[in-house]
Write a structure and sequence with these properties.
Distance between the termini: 18 Å
Number of helices: 3
Radius of gyration: 14 Å
Number of strands: 4
CATH class: Alpha Beta
Largest sheet: 4 strands, mixed
Structural class: alpha/beta
Helix content: 25-40%
Shape: globular
Order of helices and strands: EHHEHEE
Strand order of the largest sheet: 1-2-3-4
Strand content: 5-15%
Length: 104
């Protein structure tokens, strides 16, 4: 199971100023909840169950953000997600960006 998230949902990265400082309460909070569900499902299903992890594609221009300039195309954002979905590495319970595992 691959959950799509955002680096803005990482409380550690947000607090440290490592992500864009947009404080979009509803969006960030809902994605933080997705991260929590990812961890909960990974614990519930265990190492014998299906692999569960989250991926943030990074800033992607979509209808949700009014197709804001400067972001990845949806195809480029999907490449990041597909890269991890097809990887031989087990990322069970982790949240990832293009560079690897990110903190919560």
């Amino acid at each position: 199971m691959v959950n799509v998230t955002t680096d803005m949902a990482s409380q550690t990265m947000f607090d440290n100023g490592d992500v864009h400082p947009l404080n979009i309460l509803g969006y960030n909070s809902s994605k933080t909840a997705v991260n929590s569900l990812t961890l909960s499902f990974s614990k519930e299903l265990g190492s014998e169950g299906p692999e569960v992890f989250g991926v943030t594609p990074g800033f992607t221009s979509t209808d949700l953000n009014g197709n804001a300039p400067g972001g990845k195309t949806t195809a480029e954002g999907a490449e990041v997600i597909v890269k991890y979905a097809l990887s031989e590495t087990n990322y069970h319970g982790k949240i990832l960006n293009n560079n690897g595992v990110i903190p919560w």
